[in-house]
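Homework help board

Subject: predicted structure for assignment chain

Our instructor gave us this sequence and asked us to write out the predicted structure in token form, then describe one feature. I got the tokens but I'm not sure how to describe them. Can anyone check?
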Amino acid sequence: MKQLVSLLIGLIAITSYSQVKTISYNSGKLQEKRELYISLPASYEKNPTKKYPLLFVLDADYLLNPFLGTLKYGAYWDDLPEVIIVGIAQNEQRSIDCGLDEVTGMPDGKSVDFFDFISLELIPYIQKEYRTTNFKIIAGHDITAAFSNFFLYKDNSLFNAYISLSPELPVNMENELPEFLASSKLPLFYYLSTADGDEKKMQERIKIMDTKIKAIQNPNLNYKFEDFSETSHFSIVLHSAPTALYQIFAAAQPISKNEYSTKIATLKEGYVDYLKNKYDIIENSFGIKSTIRINDFKAIEAAILENKDYNELDGLAILADKSYPKSMLGDYFLATMFEYKGDNPRAVRYYMSGFNKEEIADLTKDMMFAKAEELKKTFAKKPKIKGKVGQVEETKEVPAEETPATETPVTEEKKQ
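My token output:
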């Protein structure tokens, strides 16, 4: 199964490389040209006003492929948002880019230049050239993972999320990094992983750092740690990349069965507010302004019906009209509300109103019409009036037919 997943991600990434362009960036900080890989989302050209989060991948020579494949696969199923990926090719240069002082464990010489290249040149360049949100992720492996942590040492973290795969920690980082994470005053995501294929001393220090991070009481920190068994130092990338990205973008995912059962169905009220807040969090956290998914609307509808809070369908209809103004979705929710409240004439009116609008998802004109016709059958029938208006026709008495005599007498009980 693991091999199948890895192969799938690899194939997706390969087919998507037609969307990756390579540019040569002339860096003043590094005093040399650097090769960058830029991957734009499939909708980038089609949607000229949309902005996208940024993912910076160090060691892009081999890390770009797994992250690109995961994001493309997740976006296909609407599980992950579309992201602009910026890969920095390092090859043999990585040990110079991320070289540290042996005594202090801090960037030194060329690595300071590389730090400035990313923070002062590359990020401003990408934000100027492409439509990006302010949400930025950085990912690295062993020495590049450890190096990326130094962006947390600044007063305000340069990145919103860190993906640290088997970091080769420098002197005292297992003690220093948790302190910076604990003091963060802004929302921060941090993913950390190790594998039994890592060097033993490296594993031990990573696990010490994990213990210290888990002890942090900071509501702004979203932290996840994974320790993979039967995994090599390099294959850990294929296991970690999907988990890390799904951790970071969990709030942006569609309403799952677990979210429904644990967070929505248990509410006593405020179902529409929950849906509004979910998409406000997506916009405020990631800068992604997105239309509410149809399936999320249906999940909230199901919770409302399950808890018999039918009046909330009115608010859901208002939200549907804002999200899909030309569709029949809003009318459908109003019709459903009146139907469940027993006001069938008004339900019919909204089913027929929706009939004149655009179909959406599984809502069709035939369905709306059929619902209206079915409810019309429940209307009270008006008596037919003969003669002139205001006259009441006299009812003629119809003589009762005589019951033939029977051999068995009819008892008084039967007569009644």
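Reply (TA_rk): Your tokens look well-formed. For the description, you could write something like this. The two ends are 76 Å apart (CA to CA). That's the kind of observation they're looking for.
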